[in-house]
Amino acid sequence: CGYVGERIYCWGGDTSPISNSKPTLDGGNIYSLNIKAFSGQRRERGKPTSIVLSDGKRFMIQGGNTPGPYKYANQTIIYDTSLNKWTKGSQYSIENVGAKQIYSSTAVNLPNGLIGFYGGFEQYANTSVPEISGNGNAVTFDSNNSSYVGFSRFTTHNTDSGTWSPFSPQASTLLDFYPTSQTATINPRTGKIYYLGGNYYATTSNWVPIKIPFNWAAVFNTQSGTWLNETMDGNLPTTRMYHTANLLPNSQDIILYGGSEDGQTASGSFCYTLNVETNTWNKHDAVNVPAYLSGPRFSHSGTNYSVLVDTTLFILFGRGVDGVLDPSLLTIDVANATNIFYTTTYASNKTTNSNEPNSTNSTQPGGLSKGAIGGIVAGSVVAGLGIIAFLLFYFRRQKKSKQQDTHESMDVDWDRIEDHYKEVPNVKLNPPQFTESTELQQL
């Protein structure tokens, strides 16, 4: 899900149980807009990378994991909300290797309309050209010719020119570190990108996934082009994946929401903030989400960030404590990083998030930014592990029935809305080292 074109759009997704989960995304249909199928191949996509572009009008879907024995003809597709149109973007490819089909990577908006990608896996890799890790070991392939290497170094994409290139200068790379299921959050004030949680693979670990603890983070400094390992302290979150992370408005705090420690159930401790000035974690136990709405979530919102509009964080769909699909929508007040709480009302805030490149201060009386509430678009919903059919009347019925059960007032104008992986070992390892090599080494 993403806030684009002054609306919240959700697309794609999957409704299968975890035990049979094959994440899919059908990029040709958003119900309320009745978008026609993309004029290329219409393919399901598992765990693609999606991001709202900095113009605030378009979102891009890159890569994905195909359920069948094929590569996508259109690796990158872009939807323009102002034109109600899909277009084909340029694919990521490497000389002498060819196009790379990457999934479970991360993406962040950079200045000048660039997007920065990192991490993930590659499906149907060119096995004749294995990558050489910074320690000199060759990266192997699995039985399906997939690679543990997605974007092995920080790579930028210009959607206007269609060019892909390694970020330059990039003085160092992580030595033997291939991450997935992590989040990426940029702090525009410092140019630092924080990669939090998830798992990583290494040539020296027999490709067994290693959980990434929250007492350190791989950080890429876009101002100097260097990788850092930054140490964190405070009330640390437990290791997890399928969480989201957003930089809070006019703040130096990143909010971490949800996640799963085992890939099957949601973590009971679901809300933390990281102050990036002190690198200190704080746990928030008083969010007070009603039990029937399930505060604990994982694979919500379908990206590595939740939807943030003004000072309201939208937690959309995903899976709850027991791993069952949860179609409910949560609204979290994040105006104050020290006092984060569930709210039953959407309050407009004229203070915008100056940290976000595509933020807007267009507001309406008594509501969110213009179109933010009414623009929740019914559709096939990306939920990471979880397509959810999103029918707005369901929420009104759910609201009424839950009110009867809990006697709680829900001051949400639903009519206005209608209008407008397996278990991984908990191995404690030191953060990855760096190599000064600036070239992508290959056999």
Automatic annotation (TrEMBL):
The protein's matches in Gene3D superfamilies, at most eight in alphabetical order, are given as: Kelch-type beta propeller (2.120.10.80)
Database matches in InterPro entries: Gal_Oxase/kelch_b-propeller, Kelch-typ_b-propeller
Is Kinase among this UniProt entry's keywords?
Answer: no
Q: Where do the TM regions start and end? A: 372-395
Q: Which UniProt keywords apply?
A: Kelch repeat, Membrane, Repeat, Transmembrane, Transmembrane helix
What is this protein's name? Answer: Galactose oxidase
